[in-house]
Amino acid sequence: MTGHSGGPPRRPPHVLIVGGGIGGLCLAQGLKKSGISVTLFERDESVAVRRQGYGFHINSRGSQALHDCLPQNLYDLYLATSSRSPEGNFALYTAQLKQLFAKPLPPSDSAPARISTGVNRETLREILLAGLGGVVRFGQDYQRFAPLDGGRVAAHFADGTTATGDLLVGADGANSMVRSQLVPDAAFDDLGRAIYGKTPLTRESAHWLPAVFLDGMPRVRGDNGISMGVGAYRKREPFADATARLAPGLRLTDTSDYLRWTLSGWHDELPISGRRFWEARGAALHQVAIEMVTGWHPVLRRIIGEASPAETFPFGIFAAQPVRQWDTPGVTLLGDAIHVMSPGRGEGANTSLRDAALLMMRLTEVAARGRDLADAKDAYEQEMLRYGFEAAANSKQPYFMKAMMANRATPGAPGALRPGAARGRVLE
Predict the structure, then answer these.
(1) Domain ranges, residue 367
(2) Is the pLDDT of residue 268 over 90?
(3) Is-contact 54 31, C-beta < 8 A?
(4) Structurally, how many domains does the chain consist of?
(5) I need a surface site. Which of 100, 124, 230, 351 has the fewest CB within 10 A?
C-alpha cells in the first residue's frame, strides 16, 4: 500500500502492547514521547515477579534506540546506572584457564547516544517504567486477539476484559501468545540448556579474579562439553546519587556489583535434563552448577561456589527459524516474540530495542505525516524481519560450530538440531 501525502494528519493510532519486557517498555516510552496513545498489558503482578536474567550488554544500536525512545533525563539515568564499558579483551580459555585466543574489545563509540555498555536488567526495566503509570497495566493475562470492523483489533484477557486499539503489538517474549495465533507455524532450533547465576563482587574479588573477568569478556570451553560465559556489572554511579540528579522521586532497587555467568551445554552434557532441569531452582540447581565445574581451575570453581544459590535458575537456548510476513491487519510482533535468538552474539535485547525504535518511527509517520497505518506496519515488518532473522541466524553459528567440533550431528542430518513447536514453553 502507498502512504498519503498532503491534507490534514490522520487520527493518531491507539496502540496496544502485550508484554512488559525491555522491548515493549521501550516502545511504550517512545510512543508516549511522540504523543501517540498507548496502553501496555503485562501478565505479571509487578516488575520483579520472575527472574529474567541479570546483566546484559547493550551495543551502539541498542543505545541509539534507547536514546530515540526515552526522555533525555531517563536516557542519562540509563547511562549513569550502566556498567563501566569493558576495555579489556575478548578471550577464550580452557577449563584450566589456559588462554586459547584473545583480541581487544572494540572501543565504545564516542557519540553519547551510541555508547556500548552493560546494564542490570531489573534496573533498566525500572527506568523504562518511569512515567508510565497511566500506560502500564500489570496482572493482565493476555489470551487472544480478534479483528474488528474498520481495521481495529480487540485484545482479550483471562479475566474476561477486553481492550481495543488500532494496532496490537506482541512483545510478549519467546513464549508469545500473540505469535501463536498470528504465526502458528513458527518454529525454533533447540540449541541446548544453560544455568544462569550471579556472584557478588567484593573488595577482595580484585585480589583473586584475573583482570579479564572484570574488564573484559572471557569465555571458557571445558573438556566435558560445558561452556562458561562471564561478564561483570560494575555501575558507574550509586543509584541514589543518579536518581537524585536525574529523576528525583524515582526509586531504583539497589544492587551490588556482580559477575553474571552461564554454564551451557547440550542436553546430554548437563547432569540433569528434562523436567528435572526445568524444576530445579535455588540451592539444588546451584549444586548442579558446582558439579559441572568439578576439576576446573580454582578461580572458576570459586566464581560458581560463591554465587548466590537463590539467584541461580535454568533457561533454554533457542533460535527462531525465519517466517514469512503475515497478512493479518492490525497485529504485529516485536523482539523475542518473533525472532528469539541464542545469547551467542549478545544481540537479543539489542534487536528488541532496535525493533521498538523502528516501530515508533513508523507510527510517528502515521501521526505526524498522515502515512497510512497499514503501510507503516508493512514497512516496519519488512525491515524488522530482514535484520531480525539475520541476527537470529548469526546467533546460531557458535552452537553449530560446537556441534561439528564435537563430531555431533549437523543441521539437516538425522539427529540434528530439530525445530520445536511455537506453542508451549520455549524459554524459562
Answers:
(1) 15-421
(2) no
(3) no
(4) 1
(5) 100
